[in-house]
Amino acid sequence: MAVIDVPDTGYFEYAPLVLKNYLMTRLPSDVVVATQVPEVLPPRLVVLLSVPANGDMNLVLSTRRVVIECRDRGELLTGRLAEKVRGFLVDAMYVPGNGIRDVNIIGEPGIFNNPDDPSNTPRATLTVDVLLRATHAL
What we know:
Blueprint: H1 15-24, E1 32-34, E2 45-51, E3 61-71, H2 75-92, E4 100-111, E5 124-133
Parallel strand pairs: 1-2
Antiparallel strand pairs: 2-3, 3-5, 4-5
């Protein structure tokens, strides 16, 4: 019996990976875009973290929630990076072929310094809901 690697109804790509692939085409090459916080923090970093959201049984479109953390060299540059990420994500729904059909910013960028971070690196956080289109079996 052959192994079927894609459900007949299709599946949704992992939202942080979809956003990572898109943002890597938009942000400067010195900005590290990751789905986990690296052990050694680079000077400029965007981390995409998937969190639970209310879903439905739609087989074609589904909403995924992603919390985005941005870090740069100081508070002002961190805030600016977060605003650029926000802008690029809003633009994403108009870029054909990326799987993103809609973007809803549910938490606008804001500076939040993590009290557990010994380096006290400024960190901006924003939260987005992205509407993804399913990938279907051929």
